[in-house]
From TrEMBL:
It comes from the Bacteria. The keyword Membrane applies. This is Sugar ABC transporter permease. The keyword Aminoacyl-tRNA synthetase does not apply. Keywords: Cell membrane, Membrane, Transmembrane, Transmembrane helix, Transport. Gene3D superfamilies: MetI-like. Residues 88-305 form the ABC transmembrane type-1 domain. Residues 1-22 are annotated as: Disordered. InterPro entries: ABC_transporter_permease, MetI-like, MetI-like_sf. It is a multi-pass membrane protein.
């Protein structure tokens, strides 16, 4: 019969005879196995993420042209950005305006499509696939080039507008219209947020719509009082991702415009300006400073959205 003290000793990894048990060794081997599985992930985090971030932060305080060794300039790059670079200020304002227009339009199109596709009907899978397809293609170089051809002289856009008496023009070479062609491209790729909206709409209980109908609420009132509050977490998620993605718009600005931010700097998006400073002008330290300013700006936007979400995002029974 095992005594109480022997059971306690065995629980601590010590045998009744006083010898060291195998429990501690098993724990050590288990921990070592867990750490071994974490080594690839940790190495990737350090080499692919942490090290480049640290290096770019250092370069942002230097004058570096990719050929000579970095030369420390302190806050010189940041001071030049805000005091002696009008193109930087222009790219910030242009990108900010683009985000304020393109993101709400894209989310509105995604929500409208989700509302149309949420009801089961014949061929539903095909319709959803066709609506989602632009999200798989729109970020590619080929689609950006095709988009440019569509809005240039002889393109199909001018052909359709010609039926309504609109004279032919090059929409991509006009400073007043080229930005809207890029906004149209961004709105066109509403497939990803649409799928997320669809998932959110599927989670709304049908009993709430039945209760609203019994109370005499119309479609608009039901949408405002039931759908929007319960969908607010999805709106918040899509809004945050949309803003982050729009701030980093590069390929459409590079390929739909003339590649240099033209015409008349009307497509000089922040990411394109950063690329030009780093690779065209060989000012990698200056470009690193711009990259860190973008990171700080996006972090501030995220903090603002999270704090403001307490007033307009509803979860569960708080809806």
């Amino acid at each position: 019969m095992v005594r109480q003290g022997d059971r306690r000793a065995g629980h601590r990894g010590v045998l009744p005879g006083g010898g060291q048990g195998s429990g501690a060794g098993q724990l050590i081997r288990r921990d070592l196995a867990a750490y071994a599985f974490l080594i690839p992930w940790t190495a990737g985090l350090l080499l692919v993420v942490a090290a480049p971030l640290g290096w770019s932060l250092y370069l942002s305080f230097t004058d570096y042209d990719l050929l000579a060794s970095p030369r420390w300039v302190g806050l010189g790059n940041y001071l030049e950005l805000f005091t002696d670079d009008p193109r930087f200020v222009h790219s910030v304002l242009l990108t900010g305006g683009y985000v304020l227009v393109a993101v709400p339009l894209q989310l509105g199109a995604a929500l409208a499509a989700a509302l149309l596709l949420v009801r089961e009907r014949r061929g539903q899978g095909l319709y959803r696939s066709l609506f989602y397809l632009p999200s798989l293609l729109a970020a590619s170089v080929a689609v950006s080039i095709t988009w440019r051809a569509m809005f240039d002289y002889g393109g199909p856009v001018n052909g359709v507008l010609g039926w309504f008496g609109v004279s032919e023009r090059s929409w991509i070479n006009d400073p007043g219209t080229v930005l809207w062609t890029i906004i149209a491209l961004e709105v066109w790729r509403f497939g990803a947020p649409m799928v997320i909206f669809l998932a959110g709409l599927k989670q709304i209980p049908g009993e709430l719509y039945e209760a609203a109908a019994l109370d005499g609420a119309g479609r608009l009132r039901t949408f405002v009082s039931v759908t929007v509050p319960l969908l607010s977490p999805i709106v918040f998620f899509n809004l945050l991702l949309g803003i982050i993605g729009a701030f980093q718009t590069f390929a459409p600005a590079q390929l739909v415009g003339d590649g240099n931010g033209g015409p008349a700097d009307s497509t000089l998006f922040y990411a394109l300006n950063l690329y030009q400073q780093g690779f065209d002008h060989q000012r990698m330290g200056y470009a690193s400073a711009m990259a860190w300013l973008m990171l700080i700006a996006l972090a501030m936007v995220a903090v603002f959205l999270f704090r403001s979400s307490r007033r307009w995002v509803h979860y569960g029974d708080n809806a």
